Amino acid sequence: MQLPVSRANPVVPLLAATLLALALGLAARPAAAGEEVTVSIDNFTFTPAEVTVAPGTTVTWVNNDDIPHTVVDKKQPFRSKVLDTEGKYSFTFNTAGDFTYFCSLHPHMTGKVVVKPAG
Questions:
Q1: Nearest alpha-carbon partner for 113 in 22, 96, 63, 76
Q2: Pairing state between β 57-63 and 36-42
Q3: Are 104 and 72 in contact (CB under 8 A)?
Q4: What 3-state class would DSSP assign to 74?
Q5: For the segment 71-88, what is each residue's pLDDT rounded down to a tens digit?
Q6: What does the alpha-carbon distance between residue 56 and residue 62 come to, in Å, rounded to a whole number?
Q7: Residue 45's closest CA among 2, 109, 115?
Q8: Which of 35, 66, 62, 34 is nearest to 48 (CA)?
Q9: 119: closest CA among 48, 34, 29?
Q10: What is the pTM of this model?
């Protein structure tokens, strides 16, 4: 009697590589200066909720939701206009520090940009 041959799920190697990268901390590496980082706004959430970047990095928020949102730093270094669907807002972070932001229309939506020099 021959057992049926099962095909490996093609997602398994990708999942394994992702888990290994997370375990080694590779997925959390700061974006290098000059790189652009994108944060998606969707389903009343900023994704990723926290990003770590080097000084000189531009972060762009893209509203992928079907309702308007904003991006406002709690200490006021940056503040977007109201972003309609597919609207974008970019800010270049030149100073090290933690920047906690929220949507002024939906204050429960929060996120954070951590700016720290490479090294």
A1: 96
A2: parallel
A3: yes
A4: coil
A5: 999 898 999 999 999 999
A6: 19
A7: 109
A8: 62
A9: 29
A10: 0.73
